# Entry
Amino acid sequence: MPNPRVVITGAAGFIGSHLAETLLDRGYAVVGIDNLLTGDLANIAHLAGRDFVFVKHDVTNFIVVDGPVDFVLHWASPASPIDYLELPIQTLKVGALGTHKALGLAKAKGARFVLASTSEVYGDPLVHPQDEGYWGNVNPVGPRGVYDEAKRFAEAMTVAYHRYHGLDAKIVRIFNTFGPRMRVRDGRAVPNFITQALRGEDLTVYGDGSQTRSLCYISDLVDGVIRLMHSDANGPVNIGNPRELTVEALARLVVRLTGSSSRIVHQALPVDDPRVRKPDITRAETILGWRPRVSLEDGLARTIEYFREKLAAR
Ligand code: UDP
# Structure
């Protein structure tokens, strides 16, 4: 039996590259596709020489992959709020057209499909914590709407392929995930705070910092996705760490863990920034036997190490 073969769209991105690496470690063959809009070849350079093929391609166009495919993991998308502001049309297109093309590839190959969805489908949630039965509170015409609505469309399309074509399709709703290979200029809270603290700059907390997030370390997320790939689940499954903290507390923690003398300053809160966010992971625990294992402090320490080296090399 040849090794199972996985196609990953967005393979040069933060999560995509970790998925590729872990799947290679577990004996899979991986075909990585990316148009390098927000991805970076440096994230996958170390995979050369392994059972890994990289294809530079924009998956909003028809996807051609020769040979058998057992899984399609559709990860391609801008994923930072500052990216949605800069790349609104591309964000909508990859969520809508790209998902259609990736589903088409899975259908043609008889492959299982996993959609990278997001806690953003819950918008600024009126239910707390968020379970998969909650329909969300999304502003379709706000600046984040391009991401939220694209992912909501992507979920609807994925479920339609499952119901209408019988495709074995899964949906993971990813809550704030962090770790090595996030970009220095990513714009999200963890990379911003760490680079600011390491450079001795002020940490920019948006609003009064009382909004909450729940942060999952990358290896836990990857473990959850690989369990989902092999499960019978077809409905959406939250994967995230339920430990919730305020953004102000996160900034203080980063200052402490980096040993920085940086101060915390406050800047304007972005439009439609969710007030609270915390996953209910009962479904993942029950169906996948999954729960996060890496503590926030350990995950941040590893991420700080990555950024220390990255900044020193610049
Ligand atoms: N945030 C912040 N300072 C930053 C970047 C982000 O205070 O430099 C806040 C942001 O307003 C949000 C939270 O941190 O309330 C998480 O933002 P992020 O961009 O990481 O992801 P989101 O959960 O909003 O998609």
Residues 205 and 266 are 5 Å apart (CA to CA).
